[in-house]
Design a protein that fits this description.
The protein has 162 residues and is mainly beta. It has one domain: Beta Barrel (Lipocalin). Helix content is 14%, strand content 47%. The chain contains two helices and ten strands, in the order αββββαββββββ. It is globular. The chain starts with 10 loop residues before the first helix and ends in an 8-residue tail after the last strand.
C-alpha cells in the first residue's frame, strides 16, 4: 500500500497561523489613537502615554482594560463620571478569521456592548501587536463614528524596550 507524501504548503499560507499563536499572552498598551471616520481627524484620546492590558488565552478568552493617562482618584459623582468616560474594559470569547479577530462580548464597562461582536483587525510588526477596530459609534467620544488604532507590546518587555 502506497501512501502519498505530504504536500508542502507555502510559508505565506502559514504566516497567519504563526501570528495567531503569537497573539496568546499578556500585552501592554503602547499607543492608541481614534480616527474620526468622516473627517479623518486623529486624537490620542487616552493621552500620549495610555494605560492598558490585553490578555488573550489559547482557549479563546479575551480581556482588555484601557485607561487614559493622568486619571485622578474620583472623589465626587462628577469625578466618577469622568473616570468612567476615560476607560474601556470588556471581556469575552474570541475567534480568528484570517487577520480578523471577532470578540463576542460577555461583560463590559458599557452594558450596550454586552452580547455584541466587536471586530478587530490585527498584524504583528517587529514583535508588536497592531490592532485596528472596525469603525463604530462611540458615545464617550461625542457620539461620533470612530475607529481605534492600537499598538501593544508583550507585557514581559520593559518600558525601555517599547
Amino acid at each position: 500500500m502506497m501512501t502519498q507524501a505530504p504536500t508542502k504548503r507555502s510559508t505565506s499560507s502559514l504566516q497567519p497561523q504563526r501570528d495567531e499563536q503569537k497573539l496568546v499572552g499578556a500585552w501592554t498598551l503602547v499607543s492608541c489613537f481614534m480616527e474620526d471616520t468622516e473627517t479623518k481627524e486623529r486624537k490620542e484620546v487616552w493621552g500620549e502615554h495610555p494605560n492598558g492590558c490585553l490578555v488573550l488565552t489559547a482557549a479563546g478568552h479575551w480581556i482588555v482594560v484601557q485607561t487614559a493617562e493622568g486619571r485622578k482618584n474620583p472623589q465626587t459623582d462628577e469625578g466618577r463620571i469622568a473616570a468612567f468616560r476615560s476607560m474601556l474594559a470588556y471581556s469575552g470569547r474570541y475567534r480568528i478569521e484570517g487577520r480578523k479577530i471577532v470578540i463576542k462580548v460577555e461583560i463590559a464597562w458599557d452594558e450596550s456592548w454586552v452580547g455584541t461582536e466587536q471586530v478587530r483587525y490585527f498584524s504583528m510588526e517587529g514583535g508588536q501587536l497592531h490592532i485596528e477596530a472596525a469603525p463604530q459609534r462611540y458615545a464617550n467620544l461625542g457620539d461620533k463614528d470612530m475607529r481605534a488604532v492600537l499598538v501593544w507590546k508583550s507585557a514581559g518587555e520593559s518600558k525601555e524596550q517599547s
